[in-house]
Amino acid sequence: MRKMGKLKVSIDRKISKAWIMAHETQSSTQKPKTVNEKIMESLQHPEYLPKIKALLRDKYGLDVFQYRLPYFLRRISMISKKLNTTNLFEIYNHIQKSHEGYLDFLNTLTIHVTEFFRDKSLWDYLRDELFLKILGGATGQQPTRQNPYRIWSAGCSSGQEPYSLAIMFVEAYKKYTYKSGRPMTWSLNRIKALPFQIIASDINDRILLTAQEGIYSEKTLKNADPRIIREYFTKEEDGYHISPIIKEKVTFKQLDLFKGKFPVKFHLVTCRNVVIYFTKDQQRILFKRFWDSLLPKTNMVIGKSELLPIEINKYFKLIKLSEHVYERKDFDEKGK
Ligand SMILES: C[S@@+](CC[C@H](N)C(=O)[O-])C[C@H]1O[C@@H](n2cnc3c(N)ncnc32)[C@H](O)[C@@H]1O
């Protein structure tokens, strides 16, 4: 009996060891699920995903195929939470039934996080180096009333970026007149006449209304010096109102960067924290189109966490590594 008992224990041990080994091999060969797979599993009627994409393209002209898939799926999962349904068919219906439904979708699809003077060191660089150099005529592009310095803020969200650009240009102008020994007396009319103009665009109409209103919370101004806030904003009960003169320098327009005609003849294009959600192919197309929109020897700024696709290096030269500021290379397209 004792012998039998010993034999049984040893067989059990062998079996359990074999089982553990087999199990371990199995689990190490089984790939862990990707985030995309997990999101897809949490949704009912996955066959409606391509239908949603086609609906957005065909009914509303929105080409979501140009957004990276993991990004798109994460936004779908957010929409499902907002609408309180995991059923893609219901989400499809919500988008399909009205333009409002589409705008709800677009609002969730596009991320609008922004603030005044986002990435502070960039703004110091623009005011103290780039704008000052341009105002001094160092690049042969000294702006005049007939030939103003033209800036395009592409993907401007609720307006903090284009208004920051306008304020920094005015600040650079003040420095320039001071440095050149002809300090100006500053008046609102003087600012109005300064030779620069800003076009600010975004795909999202709703966010552009907020931008046009120009009323902001204290939080979004956390990077602004108190003097800047005093000079360019008026504090009211509902928030900080941007000065009407600064507002006048910015023209907002709705524009989808995946399509349509781009505005042209710019000295500076800023497209920050926008392309990060686009596919690499779309990024290549977009940067080439920015190149087309810029005048020779002018500049482009992209976000701190964004990179130019390698193929685009032939179009732009990096001039300020830490701030992701580029200069448009000037060559005829057939050539080098
Ligand atoms: C995170 S915000 C960036 C705002 C600002 N540039 C900044 O860096 O603070 C991204 C903006 O890009 C816009 N956007 C996303 N896809 C777009 C597209 N296809 N065309 C134009 N704008 C788009 C969004 O609506 C959103 O307002």
From TrEMBL:
SUPFAM superfamilies: Chemotaxis receptor methyltransferase CheR, N-terminal domain (SSF47757), S-adenosyl-L-methionine-dependent methyltransferases (SSF53335)
PROSITE patterns: CHER
Domain of life: Archaea
InterPro entries for this protein: Bact_Chemotaxis_MeTrfase, CheR_C, CheR_MeTrfase, SAM-dependent_MTases_sf
Listed Pfam families: CheR
Domain annotation CheR-type methyltransferase: ranges: 51-329
SMART domains to which the protein is assigned, alphabetical: MeTrc (SM00138)
Name the record gives this protein: CheR-type methyltransferase domain-containing protein
Taxonomic path: Archaea, Promethearchaeati, Promethearchaeota, Promethearchaeia, Promethearchaeales
